[in-house]
Amino acid sequence: MVDFKKRIALKSKSKITNPIDLYKTLDRKSIAGPLRPVQKYALEEWYNNRKDERDLIVKLHTGEGKTLIGLLMLQSVLNLGEGPCIYVCPNIYLVKQVCWEAEKFGIPFCAIDNNNEIPNEFLSGEKILITHAHKIFNGKSIFGIGNNCTKAGTIVLDDSHACIDVLKNSFTVTISRENNETIYNKILTLFSDDLIEQGEGSYLDIKSGEYETFMMVPYWAWNSKKAELLSILSDFTNVDEIKFVWPLMKDKIIEYSCFISGSKIEIAPYNINVEQFGTFSKAKRRILMSATTQEDIFFVKGLNFSSDAVANPIVYPQLRWSGEKMILMPSLICETCDRDLVATKFASVNTKKFGIVAIVSNTKRAIYYSKLGSKLPQNNQELFSVIDDLRKSNFGKTVVINNRYDGIDLPDESCRVLIMDSMPFLNNFSDRYEEKCCPNSEII
Question: Is the model's pLDDT at 1 over the cut of 60?
Answer without folding.
Answer: no
